[in-house]
Amino acid sequence: MFERTPTVRRLSHRKRWTYILPVVVFIYVICYIDRTNISFALPHLKTDMHLTGAQQGLASGIFFWGYLLLQIPGGYIAERWSARQWIAILMVLWSVAAMASGLTHSVGQLLLARFLLGVAEGGVQPALMATIRAWFPFAERGRAFAIFKLYTPIAAIVAAPFSGVILTYLDWRWMFVIQGGAPLVVGLFAWLAVVRDTPAKAGWLSQVEREYIESARVREGEQLQPRGTFKAAFTSKIVWQFALIYTLTQMGLLGLTLWMPSVLRKAFHTDLTVGLVAILPQLAAGAAIILVGRSADRRGGHIAHMSVVLAAASLILAGASLVSAQQKWLVLLAMILGTAASIAWYGPFWATVTKLTPVAAAGAGMGLINGVGNLGSFFGPYIGGWLSDLSGGGYALTQVFFGVVFGVAALLVLTLRRRLHAATLTQPMLPPRPITVDNKDFQ
């Protein structure tokens, strides 16, 4: 039996959790704000550029078509070349495209800028995931990916007031320029100063810490320098199963987005009250993400955690169809629980992806899963709108459908249980042998 080394573990964990993850989260918060800030600008764009409803929808949605282009190449390049340098290049490109949105004077120019923004941002997430995979063993990835997913509630809380202040005192052009310049001015500096592709290249780690991180991954059966291929990603059945699960969860998340805000406004009436209570679901989501990711790592039940959370999301979304705007506290409770359950599965999911995806498909596979999965965000609104029309303009049928979607995702997750158990059984998640060093290594 191997002995634990508390001092080494604490030192190793503190450096990874406080150096790598804060920068990763910060970068993707900026990324997410630049992706969604057009929703705040649309009323002004409608007036200044005379956009039709269709053009507004296209300006919002064209981002996702560009976003698909670099998903698979993004993960592949990060793994085969350098995630650090690749993301630095993409940050410059996305910053330029984001700021260019504020300099447009026609619909065509706006669409081009938003499309290019999607292209640049598309390669970022799979590259960031490859970075997390390189720095955290499987036994800790549930927490690591959960912390990464905090970008969703953080961006949701920050984006509205940040954009509102700029729009109040300046205009929509300055909003795009200021928010687009953030990754170039702050994010790029932080990224290049702190992050390295592997622990072996990080000067701020001691030799003991490097050996701990890398030996833990080796003992779990992972290659420190995987060499993936596009073919391996496209031909892997498990990769496509993960992609299907992720697509369904993104569609289910749309069920929450379609129904909750409108009913919340009807229930609480004033914009100020709605703005205040809307923060609560995001805070609950942040707490749920961390708690579920931490519990999955400590208890080892990644599949159980995912299936329970997705089943809860299914019941909440389907049950929400029975809640009326007059039951305002039930509306708020449903929104809090629904928001938390709809994204709390994220940490265990991506930890499982990195464990079960074949080594040859690792980088490109994560990009394929994320890219295909985001199609759920594109098609979800169309399905939801069609069901709403079918039911006479209500959201009850839409909510039931998206609840069922989450339920199907939960069932698909359960089919992975034996496979993950076999993978962790044959490659036990044990800590490395204790390393005896002089005390000065810990100072």
Automatic annotation (TrEMBL):
CDD domains: MFS_ExuT_GudP_like. The keyword Transport applies. The chain crosses the membrane at residues 20-38, 58-78, 85-103, 115-136, 148-170, 176-195, 238-260, 272-291, 303-323, 329-347, 359-383, 395-416. Residues 20-421 form the Major facilitator superfamily (MFS) profile domain. It is a multi-pass membrane protein. InterPro entries: MFS, MFS_dom, MFS_trans_sf, Sugar_P_transporter. It holds the Pfam family MFS_1. Keywords: Membrane, Transmembrane, Transmembrane helix, Transport. It is found in: Cell membrane. Its main location: membrane. Gene3D superfamilies: MFS general substrate transporter like domains. One of its GO terms (cellular component) is plasma membrane. It comes from the Bacteria. GO terms for molecular function: transmembrane transporter activity. This is MFS transporter. The lineage of its organism: Bacteria, Bacillati, Actinomycetota, Actinomycetes, Mycobacteriales.
